Amino acid sequence: MSVMAQIREKIEQTPFVDTHEHLIEESRRLSGALDAGLFPCDDWAYLFRHYTQDDLASAGMPAEDRRRFFAPETGSEAKYSLVAPWWQKIKHTGYAQAVRHTLRGLYGESDLTAESAPRLAEKYRELIRPGFYEEILRQRSHIEHCQVNSLERIFMQTAQPDLLRQDLSIVALSTGLDRDRVEAESGKTADTLDGWLEVIDWHFATYGPRAVAVKNQSAYMRRLDYDRVPKEQAEPLFARYAAGETLAPGESKALQDYLLRYCVGKATEYGLPVKLHTGYYAGHSYMPLQRLRKNASDLCPLLQDFPDTRFVLMHVGYPYQDEYIALAKHYPNVSIDLCWAWIINPAAGVRFVKEFLLAAPANKLFTFGGDYIPVELVYGHSRIARQGLAQALTELVEEGWIAPEETPALIERLMRGNAHETFPLLRNV
After folding, report:
1. I want to staple 378 with a disulfide (CB 3.0 to 4.6 A). Which of 7, 59, 86, 370 is the partner?
2. pTM, two decimal places
3. What distances in angstroms separate CA 9 from CA 14, 106, 155, 349, one per listed residue?
4. What's the fold here for domain 132-426?
């Protein structure tokens, strides 16, 4: 058996620990309760919604056609006519390849065509039944567990806690300060900074023992330069915010910086890794690359000030991934997560794994997170990740950097071992 075949076989046999998803609850999928954001339609077009829609927009598909494509009232034949010309233009991107793998692996269709669309419409409905999350994730995708950053709640009290381990989102508590949302979800609010810190403490005391990590994605809104701000400076800022006053940009940043650092301290107290979004933006037509370029260097003071905190920097900082290898090599408290990255650019994912393993300790890399809302697409992404990981390790062996006999233990570490060592709810699994 060739080196490539041996590596592929081991990778196929080894389950992933999936370190990042945005899955909505299975019960919501079963109920068919739609909304314009997370679940706009309940038909095969939903498979093209998360991320693939951005490539459709980038290719030039008109906004009105995209709206009609995802509208629940549009028929299957009309949906195919709308998307078919644009599908041909994007079908080789990572986003589209995840869809194609899903079509093949879950529905037995080699591609989206005029002939397959009616069959796909029926097969889509047939798959959605009680237990289909576990079937797709564990049986089809060979995934032990998923870590879910809910986009619906600060902490989702899931009906499937063994399968869907949950992150505690600290956005509404800190960098996206939102007293209304916090009060709606928890019944807690405050008009003073001390009172708000008690609200944060309550969230950690209530959800920290059940959370697998904390998550923040403020990189979509701002730089990651979380400065040291004394409490005396933050107190009057919070009071003015609570009174309904609009803070100046610098004042808002100072308050966010203080609260983010307070949350990081609480995460450390509870032994929770801190996941931070870095790099590429979901969506289209608004990404400020100049700001993204600074994210890795902006984070250095935070990494230095919290040496006992495990920081997980997500999405490899694409397209500036070299800086994140440098951070993982230099800072003992930094790990890097390939979640989402395989479908942003599969070839870049292969290069990243090779360069990371030759520069940084192997225990500081997580190699899969689908980063999806629709559970079906996790399967497609997992196929790309297994292919990319196999290619990267095979090339490292063939180029003489790694001995063939070292690959089985390395595969085990990269696909699940690092997650078991790092995330508290996985340590005894």
Report:
1. 370
2. 0.96
3. 9, 21, 37, 20
4. TIM Barrel (3.20.20)
